Amino acid sequence: MAALQTDILRLQGFKPVNSLAVDMGLGHIKDAFPNATFPLGAVHEFVSTKTEDAAATGGFMAGLLSSLLGTSGAALWISASRTLFPPALKSFGIHPDRFIFVDLQKEKDVIWAMDEALKCGALAAVVGEMQEISFTASRRLQLAVEQSQVTGFILRNHYRQLNTTACVSRWKITSLPSEPVDDLPGIGFPTWRVELLRIRNGRSGVWDMQWRDGKLLPVYKSLSQVPEQQQKTG
Amino acid sequence: MASRFVSIWFRHLTTDWFAIRQQALAKHSGETKPLLKDLPFVLRAPSHGRMVITAANAFAERKGITPGMVLADARALFPDLEVLDDKPDLSEKLLKRLALWCIRFTPIVAVDPPDGLLLDVTGCTHLWGGDERYLEEIVKKLNARGYDVRAAMADTLGVAWAMARFGNEPLVVAPGRHIEALLPLPPEALRLEADAATRLHKLGLHQIRQFIQMPRASLRRRFGPHFIMRLDMALGQEMEGIEPVEPVEPYQERLPCLEPIVTATGIEIALQQLLETLCLRLRHEQKGLRSAVFKGYRVDGKIERIDIGTNRPSHHVSHLFKLFEIKLPTIEPALGIELFVLEAPKVEDHFAQQEQMWEGTGGLDDERLSELIDRLAVKVGAQSIRRYVPDEHYWPERSFKPAASLQEKLTTNWRTDKLRPLNLLATPERIDVTAPIPDYPPMLFRHNGKLHKIVKADGPERIEQEWWLQQGQHRDYYRVEDEEGYRYWLFRLGHYHEKTYQWFIHGFFA
């Protein structure tokens, strides 16, 4: 069955990009991806509408980045309106000093810088914050990563229009109320609803996740609320 | 290689400048006033309650008007004389500007006040096809700009200076023949103090050959040590240093062009050639450049320049070319560029690494990363690219600082004991808050017109100002979560009981 699935994917034009697959610690979300591996060497799109959700998106993405950066990787954070507080990355298992921040004035420059950065094979990941990206621009980024095998993340907060892009996936992360730890008062571990709206050659879905003890963990309690996973190919 | 020097003497430096300026202005405004360059005119300045002539042009000099004359006397000699006000320090400024312009002929140009320039042209003349052609070119170019000059070339500065002012043709003194050239000249040609020259004339010594053989001891006794020094300088027995207007970069490559370059392709070829020679030299010396300047000297006297910088020493031609390439379109060749110069003001040791079998493993030490940063920096400016290292401060805005380089090691660890929000507002925003009792987290807060009901909260975490850095009130931070599950970082500035406290929102937790 698995072999047949792989064959189908190959016939669909899916290139198994990286033999050195990184375990992103995504647990059973993995099943949604083609070949059950998080697509590296691709551009992922994260969308959010609220400032609060942008923080949640950043948190989930930081969780992914921490496994992607490993022990020595470096990454670039390109933005025209950065609010990220570098020391906070440490609580997501990332050494903030391994990030290089490029703060620009215009979004056009962000796309240019991201295109340039994605061509550099020395980086583990490139994060670009932008409101809008055209299909052509996202196609350029996709072409850049196909050469260099760098993974790109696009953060789109306060987007105006959710247009078609050439990105491999589209994620939407929203905050959920944290659950109390051992019935103690105060705020518990960060909890998010992770919606995979679109994934090329995979299945989209919705999961509840928690960042706990330096790992992304599924929250089983609320799994009952999860709507049925739709079959969809990109 | 034997040294060669050129001395340029501007015979009417300031008056020439006034004439050039008036001509340019007249052309610009279309006026048809008689041109100054065709009239006798003088410059004047007040001195001891009289108007004294400070400079006269060639026509005025022919009428017998010389600098130092009282203006009224000159008017008596020639009533139609044009008179203009002199500008103080004009000649120094002009000489400096002309010296910078002359860098196209040689990197070492010095100002020789009040009316001359000195050029060290050792090893430069062959590029123009010989000494005579070189000197001719300088004089022709300066004449074309409107300056009346005399220039001479010799093995010593002293003889070049003397020949430019007192010598007869030919003004290029062949190598080794400078003493012969000096012999028929008057004593003033030795750059003597005024009274020493007068005394020599009084003694009937009107030519240098008459006293050059005299015993040194008696010359020194009569005319002082300055006289002997000048004589030795002219003869080449004493070294004479000149102070260039622009310090010469030790790592510099020059490319003069036979024909002025106007096309982008031409400029690219020039840059490529210069980079190749410079990088070859750097590689031999195991060095790499950290910053470089590419200059183009235009025909009309302007200098076009572009600068680049690198994060780590580099002598990688194609990488450096790429950095320049982004800025190349900013060069305006106008009528053409006749000389290209590539300088490396900042050079550091760079030990060639062993060629790698496969590409680097990535990370901050990877050369490809620093090359990427260089490329980005050229386009967006190095100040917008930052890497941060922790700093030992509790105040959130000061808890990290920009790192000096990509390789800078941490001096302290990133703190993990206190949770910090992932997104922090650049400046905290005011909120309206309902809090039940002092030191208790708020129940409600209103931000951007939306009411948030707080369900869970942690805190307070008090962060004090560091009095040695900044005076002000402390902050009491609370981590709160509202009904919808959004998590915020709020703080109260100041003490609750003082009634001057204010509430702020500072960040968003993931």
UniProtKB/TrEMBL annotation, chain A:
InterPro entries reported in the protein's UniProt record: ImuA, P-loop_NTPase
Protein name, as recorded: Protein ImuA
Organism: Chryseolinea serpens
TrEMBL record, chain B:
Residue ranges of domain UmuC in the record: 10-160
Protein name: Protein ImuB
PANTHER family: BLR3025 PROTEIN, BLR3025 PROTEIN-RELATED
Native organism: Chryseolinea serpens
Family membership noted in the UniProt record: Belongs to the DNA polymerase type-Y family.
Recorded superkingdom: Bacteria
TM region(s), chain numbering: none
GO biological process: DNA repair
Keyword DNA damage in annotation: yes
Pfam family membership, one: IMS
Keywords associated with the record: DNA damage
